[in-house]
Design a protein that fits this description.
Elements (H helix, E strand, L loop, with lengths): L12 E6 L2 H20 L6 E5 L3 H11 L9 E5 L1 E3 L9 H8 L20 H15 L10 E4 L24 E4 L9 E4 L1 H4 L4 E6 L5 H9 L17 E7 H4 L16
Parallel strand pairs: 1-9, 2-3, 2-5, 5-8, 8-9
Antiparallel strand pairs: 4-7, 6-7
Helix pairs in contact: 1-2, 2-3
This protein binds 6-phosphogluconic acid.
Pfam families: Glucosamine_iso (PF01182)
Family: Belongs to the glucosamine/galactosamine-6-phosphate isomerase family. 6-phosphogluconolactonase subfamily.
Keywords: Hydrolase
């Protein structure tokens, strides 16, 4: 069983609120480059990052491609989840990153861990799990240096949806899903044991439409834990990067970092 504790001392969770998404973006870039420098300078000698779709694609791509001296030659980029559609399909998260980021920085092709969307969804998940295990040799659970996650208005993250049996997956590192409530229905996703094994997990959530679900995820409430609330890295850091509209309903203590501050 890929078991990891799901409990985390909430005092090690940081909720960081920025005036707007425009000010959050550069802070996200600083987080990524700081973690990349740290990882590349460690015995691992490389930086492994998992990225998500949604608004994160544009924000991350814009901020990273604007940096003058970004060196991605020792980066390994995986996908926290992916839609099983051709790369040329506008729904392909890889396709979007390829156009907006991967083709514009010096990440070697061998450093990009993408799905094979020509495979049926079950085989696609197995194939992606194999790629991860080859890229993280000797690790039963791949330990990413940084996972960047989004959260949908229903509290989903990766392709882990509320009340879905995949939330209980404890054997696989990557799971197929054929009944995603959010289209397209066929996807592959990292499982919670992999997400919770990461050294750092950062959610990025912006806009007033996220305010009520964020309150439930971060401050609790009735009913079962939403998928995003189940992201509680067993040893790693957990950061929530929000803008003021998304944080509007929160009453918990948050940090409001100064412009240019290191996270
Ligand atoms: O595959 C998907 O359907 C998206 O990747 C999705 O999971 C997204 O990450 C969240 O809905 C948050 O999206 P926003 O950041 O755009 O709100």
């Amino acid at each position: 069983m890929l078991t990891l504790s799901n409990k985390k001392d909430m005092s090690s969770r940081r909720v960081l609120v920025f005036p707007s998404a425009a000010e959050l973006g550069p802070a996200l870039a600083r987080l990524v480059t700081a973690r990349a420098d740290q990882a590349c300078g460690s015995a691992r000698g490389r930086f492994s990052i998992g990225v998500s779709g949604g608004s994160l694609v544009g924000m991350l791509s814009k901020e990273l491609t604007a940096l003058p001296n970004l060196d991605c030659s020792r980066w390994v980029v995986g996908f926290c989840d992916e839609r099983v559609v051709p790369f040329s399909d506008p729904e392909s998260t890889y396709g979007l990153y390829k156009d907006q980021l991967l083709s514009k920085v010096n990440i070697p092709e061998s450093g990009v861990l993408a799905i094979n969307p020509t495979l049926p969804v079950q085989e696609c998940a197995e194939d992606y799990a194999r790629k991860l295990s080859e890229s993280f040799p000797g690790e039963a659970i791949p330990v990413f240096d940084l996972l960047l996650l989004g959260m949908g208005p229903d509290g989903h993250t990766c392709s882990l949806f509320p009340d879905h049996p995949l939330l209980e997956e404890s054997q696989k590192t990557v799971a197929p899903i054929s009944d995603s409530p959010k289209p397209p229905p066929q996807r592959v996703t990292l499982t919670l044991p992999v997400v919770n094994a990461a050294r750092c997990v950062a959610f990025v959530s912006t806009g007033g439409s996220k305010a009520s679900v964020l309150k439930r995820v971060l401050e609790g409430g009735e009913g079962p834990l939403l998928p995003a609330a189940r992201v509680t890295p067993s040893k790693g850091e957990l950061l929530w990067l929000l803008d003021e509209p998304a944080a509007a309903s929160l009453t918990l203590q948050v940090e409001r970092p100064a412009s240019g501050a290191h996270l």
